[in-house]
Amino acid sequence: MIWLVNLLGLVLMLAIVWWFWLAKPASVQRRADSDSVDILVDDGVYTPSRIEVPANQPITLRFLRKDPSPCAEQVIFSDFNISAELPVDQYKEITLTPQEKGEYDFTCQMQMYRGTLVVT
Ligand SMILES: [Cu+2]
Description:
single chain, alpha/beta, Immunoglobulin-like, 4-stranded mixed beta sheet, 10 strands, globular, binds copper (II) ion, Cupredoxin-like protein, EfeO_Cupredoxin, Cupredoxin
């Protein structure tokens, strides 16, 4: 029976590796007729967590935090020197204008919540 336990452990480990490091969530593009994207903050994930925006255009990210745990209370865009407190159950708007194409991560203060702004 011990092999079965080992096998289950291995499968679980692979699932965790896949979930945290390998899975690339589908990216969401900003709607053509809108300059904002809504992001839900709950259950340890930003939804969507991968957001595609064009360079040199202001974008407003509207964070709606549902997770009351302190882990979710800040969002940090380190590449843009932006950090903000997120109130529970209220939209918090962050507007920025990315100039360089590339991928920019945003996280909570503990880097457990993770998202990526993809500038194209
Ligand atoms: Cu956190």
